[in-house]
Amino acid sequence: MPEFQDVDFLHLDELLSDEERLARGAVREFVSREFLPVLQQHVRQDGSFPMELVPAMAELGLFGANLHGYGCAGMSNVGYGLVMQELERGDSGLRSFASVQGSLVMYPILTYGSDAQRERWLPELAAGRAIGCFGLTEPDAGSHVSALRTKAQQRGDSWILNGTKRWITNGSLADVSVIWARTDEGVRGFLVEKDRGGFEARDIKGKFSLRASVTSELFLQDVEVPEENRLPKAESLRAPLSCLTQARYGIAWGVIGAAMACYDEALRYARERNVQGGVLAGKQITQEKLVFMLTEITKAQLLAWRVGRIKDEGHLDPVMVSMIKRNNVDVALQIARLARDLLGANGIVDDYQSMRHMVNLETVRTYEGTHDVHTLILGEHITGHRAL
């Protein structure tokens, strides 16, 4: 695969710190040299992730990269976003692995957990010696998270969990699952170790998308966990929703990487592909498509950078994340489709990457709140009316 050419039409590098550029460069090299050469075999295996790369990912500080303490890298939120961008330039499954570990497992333990829970899990998760997953989505409760049915009933000093979680990234790989369940007092979070009796993870097969990622269904049948496994500061549905905000932020950056990979591939191909009357790049329609790609990538970069700086300043509004998740995923998917179109018949084979990114982005458009759900979140915010 040719050396990736960065996409920076408006010289946005000038807005980054030296540390942010250094982090991006290190991850870019890791993806190109370590991940992409082994990716194809995992995509073809349907649900296989290169676990042998986890120690190197931990060494780069990719797990909980924007968290502080407990062995975390403590990057700025913009630096973290750039890291997610480079991971997804490789594959959405790679970014999802790191995003779940940091935003959906480490973040809730850090934010809502006890001191003992933090000391027990965060250093292990940061070092990649433990893997986690986030159990919120259910077969009948996706974006409508308030409809979740998993229940936790208190019995003395323990809790008994019953329910099913579905579409769980890293589910069967996880040493600990952050399970969200309904109690008599409202939604609460629990840490469930993989060896608890009554807990089972089964992988979902036959995926057209995110094939280099492990996606599982979790079954909890009378799973008993002690009170010390409950996240003590998670007292309502706001807790898991705040975790989703962290993950959506990373997604909004990540998909820029997928879009850049597709643009870079399409531009190279168009310059080299001879068609009637010259190279493909010399055709008006081709140039119109490439101009659209470059413009939308640049707009997505500006949106993500600005929201990242606001997040670093400490006054992020979750609706801002809804905007950039909604916009950036949508344009990345459009760019992937256009790139595959420019590649012609070659675009359907896995010697090229645009179609892999395209089908991955169909999933990314769906998870962590669908495109339409984020439309309604923004619509309610600007009008003051919840749409029916």
Describe this structure in words.
The chain has 388 residues and is α+β, with helices and mostly antiparallel strands. It folds into 3 domains: 12-126, Orthogonal Bundle (Butyryl-Coa Dehydrogenase, subunit A, domain 1); 132-229, Beta Barrel (Butyryl-CoA Dehydrogenase, subunit A, domain 2); 238-383, Butyryl-CoA Dehydrogenase, subunit A, domain 3 (Up-down Bundle), CATH 1.20.140. It contains 10 helices and 9 strands. The strands form 3 sheets. A 4-stranded antiparallel β-sheet has the order 2-3-7-6, with helices on one face. Strands 1-4-5 form a 3-stranded mixed β-sheet. It has a two-stranded antiparallel ribbon with strand order 8-9. Helix 8 crosses helix 10 (371-383). The longest helix has 35 residues, at 238-272. The radius of gyration is 21 Å and the shape is globular. 48% of the residues are buried.
